[in-house]
Amino acid sequence: MSRVLGELAVLDDVGPPRRGRAYPAAGATSALLLPALLLLGGLVAWPVLRTLHASVTTDGRWVGAEHFRTALSAPGTGAVVGRTLLWALLVPAVVTVLGYLLAAASRRSQEGGLVRLILVVPTALPLVVTGVTFRLMYDPDPERGLATLVAATLTGRSAADAPQLLGPRLVTVALMSAFVWAWVGLAVLVFRAALDAVPPSLADAVRAYGGNRRDVLWDAQWRPLLLRTVAVVFTLAALGTARTFDLILVMAPGSVRDEASVLALRVWQTSNGATTGEGAALGVVWLVAVAAGMLVAALFVRQAWPPPRDPVPVAPEPVTPAPRRTTRLLVAGAAVAWLVPLGVLLATSLHGAVDAAARGWWWSPPGLDSYRDLLTGTELWRTLGFTLVLATVVTAVVLGVALLAAYPLAWLSGPPAQATGLLLMAASIVPVQVIAGPVNEVLGVVLSSGTARGLALVHVALGVPFAVLVLRNAFADLPAEQVRAARVGGRHWWGTLRLLARHNRPAVVAVAVLEFVQVWNDLVVGLLFSGPGALPLGLFLAGQTRGFAANSGALAAGSVIASILPVLLVVLARRQLVAGLVAGGVR
Predict the structure, then answer these.
(1) What residues contact 103, with CB distance under 8 A and at least 6 apart?
(2) From CA 524, how far away is CA 535, in angstroms rounded?
(3) Which of 15, 358, 405, 409 has the most crowded Cβ, counting Cβ within 10 A?
(4) Helices (H), 429-551
(5) How many helices (DSSP H) and strands (DSSP E) are in the chain?
């Protein structure tokens, strides 16, 4: 800015708008990127390289593929790899199809808003709680397990011959059903946002040229937008299957855990949190599979960068015809099916230890004994307080580091921008079990191993890549006019950054809520990196599952209490979550 003939003039912004005018100087750029680079370099990149090195060496001596041969020839490894591939292909396909059908059906029905709210609730639950809920439903004793009782009644079999969903033959199916229940809500939200973004005029144009319902789906929805959305939802669900570790650990009884094992569990069992040859080899196999899946998905979702803007505003949605009876039945059936597990968890929590252990919740009147026992003790309060402080601190640090790093990265263009996006995505999907040993070595160097400080550092390092990716994409998606207005309003780069963050409030809220909920709901990071005096909530609940039948009442009550805060956050911020993810996370 300068004064011309006594008037204040913005000489820097004369001419066509260019993104580079908001770019900070080289020194400021280095300072902004430094915190993220230190975290990702020390706690993600170096541990990955250390794992690769350990997979082909023994005590520093080159052994080639020996560890791979030993690990892959171990009994049961072939079944574990096959089961992992089944999880990565079948479950995301089911989540994607159900998500689209329910999004399309609920969009046209009057009850759609309520149904979507019901579907979203399981998305916010910790997977530990999901595992507890479905283990209660699938209890092999028909006196306690509602699903076993229904299956025995429908098949006309006795209690001893009733289908055992947690038995060795069906345990993987049971685990998959729990995962689908937990993830369909997110798919519905993303598909609903994509369907709302499709201009209604496209469907009208297809019908005007004689197109039928199939032509409308293909030419007006699938090709312009749904293809990328399907790729995004499928990829998110496929990457989410890496979290089956939590489900298997909580839901599968110890006697059938081997029949349900996947690479996530096998790597943890083999390496036990250390850097070993066979464990590192299995981890590398898992890393290669995840990276290949990411690259395939990137081929479907790639687009020009910065993303092109639509100059034509989307017309308001026309009045939709009344939904068919089958559509209304599908929506109502989904709502009931998604409510049943929640009802089972809540009903079990309203029974004391003796009643819940002896028989199902439908045999005795409800009470508050389990809640009273939990809330009058000190252990739950201490765990809740620790997890609340941990999640708040981690969220604040991740948000600060990501905002600083996203600002200079947002204005890159061409191959550097595409390469940066791929690197951030790759860093976001590294399974923590694979790098647990090297990360513990790094934490030992900085005197943080087994401490709350070390646990927080790992959460921050794992949360920063996705947060930077979302915020970078959201910043780059802003119109140049807003960038210029932010630069005029802010005297320095930090003023511009503050104004940009204000203009991207949905993305900032999405990052904050997702990070807080992820830390609150975590089990695997706490299991690998916590120590004495640092007991997060997920680890506390998982510890209560050891005496599952005898402890089911208190466990259900603890699960309900643990779910209140994440459910409230996700339900209240669901619009910002969808807007932030669609604007930044799925670019």
Answers:
(1) 187, 188, 189, 191, 192, 195
(2) 12
(3) 405
(4) 436-445, 452-476, 480-489, 493-503, 505-521, 524-529, 537-544
(5) 29, 4
Q: What is the pLDDT of residues 20-57, one digit of tens each?
A: 445 667 777 888 899 999 999 999 999 999 999 999 99
Contact (CB, 8 A) for 490 and 496 = yes
Query: pLDDT tens digits for 125-166?
Result: 999 999 999 999 998 888 888 888 888 888 777 767 777 888
Report d(CA 270, CA 385) in Å as an integer.
33
Length of the chain: 587
Greater confidence (483 vs 168) lies with 168
Burial 25-60 (b: 16+ CB within 10 A, else e): eeebbeebbebbeebbebbbbbbbebbeebbbbeee
**CA dist., res. 261 & res. 251, Å (int):** 12
Q: Which residue(s) pair with 7 in the sheet?
A: 4
Does residue 16 have a pLDDT over 60?
A: no
Q: How far apart are the first and last CA of the chain?
A: 34
How many Cβ atoms from other residues are within 10 Å of residue 113's Cβ? 11
Kindly report the pTM of this predicted structure. Answer: 0.86
Cα–Cα distances (Å) from 440 to 269, 280, 287, 479, in that order, read 16, 14, 19, 44
* Helix-helix angle 452-476:436-445, to 10 degrees: 110
Tens of pLDDT, residues 237-265:
887 887 788 899 999 988 888 899 998 88
Would you state the structure tokens that stand for residue 393, as one six-digit string? 């601190």
pLDDT at 3 over 50: no
* CA 119/CA 134 separation, integer angstroms: 16
Q: What angle do CA 168, 172, 177 make, to 5 degrees?
A: 135
